[in-house]
Specification:
Elements (H helix, E strand, L loop, with lengths): L1 H25 L9 H13 L4 E5 L4 E4 L2 H9 L4 E6 L2 E6 L2 E11 L2 E9 L1
Antiparallel strand pairs: 1-2, 2-6, 3-4, 4-5, 5-6
Length: 119
């Protein structure tokens, strides 16, 4: 049964490596105080649609993005222009309105951002 033993050893190594890599990529997602299901759903949709930014919901203006640059391209579609950035908070303006984007790392590959519009 050496072929069967080799198969199970390779299967164990492959699945263990896969789980370890998934843990490294999404270790920030395992926190209990985050809404993991909506974020993971948005990441899944973003990846399947091949987008760089995806709105989680329209009401609260929460988005998942790959980087601050892709977030800027996303808000430029609605004519928002960059004003300044202080840490993980970015200010955009459009005419006499302001929008604040508060971002935080969800995993090494993704950011979650709350977009709040100010009068």
């Amino acid at each position: 049964h050496p072929k069967l033993t080799q198969f199970f050893i390779l299967l164990t190594l492959t699945s263990g490596t896969t789980l370890f890599l998934l843990y490294l990529l999404f270790r920030g997602a395992w926190s209990t105080h985050q809404e993991n299901l909506p974020v993971l759903r948005a990441i899944w949709l973003m990846e399947t649609k091949r987008e760089s930014t995806w709105a989680m919901d329209e009401e609260t203006q929460r988005v998942v993005t790959r980087s601050y640059e892709t977030l800027e391209k996303h808000v430029q579609k609605d004519d928002w222009t960059w004003v300044n950035r202080f840490g993980a908070t970015i200010t955009y303006s459009k005419q006499d309105k302001r929008m604040i984007a508060s971002c935080r790392a969800y995993s090494p590959l993704y950011l979650t951002c709350n977009l709040s519009k100010l009068p």
